[in-house]
Amino acid sequence: MKKHVTLFVAGLFLCSLTGCSFFSVGKEPVLEKSFSVSDNQITIYSSAVTDTLNILLFSDTHLFAKDDREKPYEQYSKRMSGAYNVTKHYKTGGETTPSLVFLETVQVAREKKVDLLAMLGDIFSYPSEYAIEWADSILRDARLNYVYVAGNHDWHYEGMPGSSEDLRKTWIDKRLLPLYQGHNPLYYAVDVKGVRVLVIDNSTYEISAEQLAFFKEQARTGLPLLLMTHIPFYMPGRGVGYGCGHPDWNKAHDGGYRIERREPWPEEGHTATTMQFRDEILNTPNLLAVFSGHIHHQTLDVSKRNLPMFVGKPNFSGHYYDVTIMPMSVE
Ligand SMILES: [Fe+2]
Prior knowledge:
Elements: H1 2-18, E1 33-38, E2 41-46, E3 53-58, H2 74-77, E4 87-88, E5 95-96, H3 98-112, E6 116-119, H4 129-142, E7 146-148, H5 164-176, E8 187-192, E9 195-200, H6 209-220, E10 225-228, H7 257-260, H8 272-282, E11 287-292, E12 299-302, E13 308-311, E14 321-327
Parallel strand pairs: 2-14, 3-6, 6-7, 9-10, 10-11, 11-13
Antiparallel strand pairs: 1-2, 3-14, 4-5, 8-9, 12-13
Helix pairs in contact: 3-4, 6-8
The protein binds fe (ii) ion.
């Protein structure tokens, strides 16, 4: 008993020196949130939100069109340039194409006058100069407020030597850069009617120390946050290929590197920083939701602390999420 009292007093003393918040738990304002889902409509209610905003969000369009400038790279783009050429619309069952659904989705965003259009990676099947210029011109003409983050295919030429990090940097700098509108391609934030949207690139399956520091800094602002990434985050029950942060994510469980002709996942698995990032998002009370793509299936996971994590169907099937964020409703 005496030992416990001594430890408690020592803890108080330490906290008075460091300003730690261990003994101030309970002083933080309680943030309430809830959400509802109907087909592709998501409504998130939050006590930290004072205005209503609308976000149209999609991933995995897999645009593939090219012109003669692509000839020197054909050995690297052959498989993916034929992967999703004709697709099936998830609602009608009819045939469609990635460029058609991209145009339709941008048009919906214009008609709805959304506050933000969010594109969460794999908008391209490979970094085709023609496809990127085409999408950029459509977005500029639409005059929409938008964010974009890369997916693992946006910068990947299959069989091209180099690490994921190096290839991502190379093809962002050479081709994808205009889509970021001057933001840092690896992490940035935009404010929309009092909600801060964090856009973080985890398309290599990893989070860097800089990205982790950025997230922690944003979490400390106390602002209502949304997190957007290409690869979703692992939750219990999900397979190793599902998302970022699975404890068995490593070379031994990488079933795709030969097909995608890329470096295998590291033998030692995720970095400690990536695992810490996942812990941080699960324990950030002012984070309202996480949105991702990558797996081409619609999923929803809710953490123990009521953090919803949404993944949409691929946009090449015509899917997008129509997200409304609004003040907490009276139950
Ligand atoms: Fe994809």
